[in-house]
Automatic annotation (TrEMBL):
<dbReference type="GO" id="GO:0030041">
    <property type="term" value="P:actin filament polymerization"/>
</dbReference>
<dbReference type="GO" id="GO:0051015">
    <property type="term" value="F:actin filament binding"/>
</dbReference>
<comment type="function">
    <text>Functions as actin-binding component of the Arp2/3 complex which is involved in regulation of actin polymerization and together with an activating nucleation-promoting factor (NPF) mediates the formation of branched actin networks. Seems to contact the mother actin filament.</text>
</comment>
<dbReference type="InterPro" id="IPR008384">
    <property type="entry name" value="ARPC4"/>
</dbReference>
<dbReference type="GO" id="GO:0005885">
    <property type="term" value="C:Arp2/3 protein complex"/>
</dbReference>
<keyword id="KW-0963">Cytoplasm</keyword>
<dbReference type="Pfam" id="PF05856">
    <property type="entry name" value="ARPC4"/>
</dbReference>
<protein>
    <recommendedName>
        <fullName>Arp2/3 complex 20 kDa</fullName>
    </recommendedName>
</protein>
<comment type="similarity">
    <text>Belongs to the ARPC4 family.</text>
</comment>
<dbReference type="GO" id="GO:0034314">
    <property type="term" value="P:Arp2/3 complex-mediated actin nucleation"/>
</dbReference>
<dbReference type="InterPro" id="IPR034666">
    <property type="entry name" value="ARPC2/4"/>
</dbReference>
<keyword id="KW-0206">Cytoskeleton</keyword>
<keyword id="KW-0009">Actin-binding</keyword>
Amino acid sequence: MRAFGKTLSLAPQPYLSFVQLPSSHVEGDTNLELEEEGASREPEDDISTCIQSQSLRPYLQCVRSSLTAALSLSNFASQASERHNVPEIEAASSPEVLLNPLTVARNENEKVLIEPSINSVRVSIRIKQADEIENILVHKFTRFLTQRAESFFILRRKPVKGYDISFLITNTHTEEMLKHKLVDFIIQFMEEVDKEISEMKLFLNARARFVAESFLTPFD
């Protein structure tokens, strides 16, 4: 909890030194992964896959740990309205029940904002966008999800400014659902959304190439 209010940059080397992971443990995992996959892949593929996995794992692990700590929620009646119970992180009517926000950043274009309070937590995610095509795909994808927010229970219809999608978890959610499953859902979303955007981009490029070839064929 002492980390709240700070921005953590999660490039692989700085993060490993921040959490003080034993070097032998990291090297052991790396060697194990290379040995298991070395028979079916080229050495260069093994190295690139290992580096990508090692760079993503600390980022997701830090988000998981921070979110698990922030989800220590309790029922709390509104101090501004009698007989009302509202998410304090949204109402912002009682500053004394709001905790310091935490930003976990993998890089400038990929980060998570965790805003905790006594009875609710707001989680905002900025999805990696390398070019204009990915900007459009992310916008369409997140818009598709937010229009169906009621089906996801914890999904916020409008994301926080500067982020692509936001989740709102209240004490009611943690009482009715398993807390670790809520954390698993957000982590899995972060893992899968990049894959979805990449697949859509590949499909879009392949379709554009096919259309261009079909259009230019009569002129050959």
